[in-house]
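Re: [ENG-882] Designed sequences occasionally contain unexpected residues at chain ends

Forwarding the minimal case from QA. Structure tokens:
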């Protein structure tokens, strides 16, 4: 059986994943068609 710490970390990962999806949808709406290109540009700078 997984430790309580492992379970809590798994829950945090799931929360972060859901938050990432929310942020991405908002970002994509704001950035429009250039969302992917802009993200890569910022990521690589």
């Amino acid at each position: 059986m997984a430790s309580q710490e492992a379970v809590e970390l798994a829950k945090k990962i799931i929360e972060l994943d859901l938050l990432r999806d929310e942020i991405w949808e908002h970002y994509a709406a704001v950035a429009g068609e250039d969302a992917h290109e802009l993200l890569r540009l910022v990521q690589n700078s």
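QA comment: On inspection the terminal residues look reasonable. The mean pLDDT is 97. Proposing we downgrade this to a documentation issue.
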